[in-house]
Design goal:
Layout lengths: L4 H35 L7 H13 L3 H136 L1
Length: about 200
């Protein structure tokens, strides 16, 4: 009986050596799939192709077929991601255009407001000038009023001695008036007595 254990063993060793890179490649694909899922939310939409790719790698033993399938399955999500980025870029450009469309009327309105503001500022300046003139006039009136008050005080100072003199004259006049009144009363009494005697 002829034994072929050694050739079979020799054949098994290259197969195992060939299977190990396939398993390493499958592990690498699994790691890459996890990284893609963590990297962008758009990969969530492509979970099914990645799972199909993982299943395909596990079901095939040919390194060439596994590699070809891996490349094709990897290229598809990348293409889809590129398309998603392009769609997002297009949406950003559309939004930018919309913002510019809204910005233009705002700038026009700002220019219009500036045109209206200028006459208001000119009027405000004119009012300020008029106010300053009024304040200057008020200051002049205050100065004149102060002068009048000073003159009034001087008149009061002259009036006070006159009033004091008048009071002194009144003090001398009062006894004279009292004496005159007493004489008149006596004359009236005498006239009254004469009328009584004659009657």
């Amino acid at each position: 009986m002829i034994t072929h254990t050694s050739p079979v063993g020799d054949h098994t060793s290259p197969v195992e050596d060939h299977t190990s890179p396939v398993e390493d490649h499958t592990s690498s694909v699994d790691d890459h799939t996890s990284s893609v899922e963590d990297h962008t939310s758009s990969v969530d939409d492509h979970t099914s192709p990645v799972e199909d790719h993982t299943s395909s790698v596990e079901d095939h033993t040919s390194p060439v077929e596994d590699h070809t399938s891996s490349v094709e399955d990897h290229t598809s999500p990348v293409d889809d991601h590129t398309s998603s980025v392009e769609d997002h870029t297009s949406a950003v450009e559309d939004h930018t255009s919309s913002v510019e469309d809204h910005t233009s009327p705002v700038e026009d309105h700002t220019s219009s407001v500036d045109d209206h503001t200028s006459p208001v500022e000119d009027h405000t300046s004119s009012v300020d000038d008029h106010t300053s003139s009024v304040e200057d006039h008020t200051s002049s009136v205050d100065d004149h009023t102060s002068s009048v008050e000073d003159h009034t005080s001087s008149v009061d100072d002259h009036t006070s001695p006159v009033e004091d003199h008048t009071s002194s004259v009144d003090d001398y006049t009062s006894p004279v008036e009292d004496h005159t009144s007493s004489v008149e009363e006596k004359e009236i009494d005498k006239e009254g007595e004469g009328q009584i005697i004659s009657s």
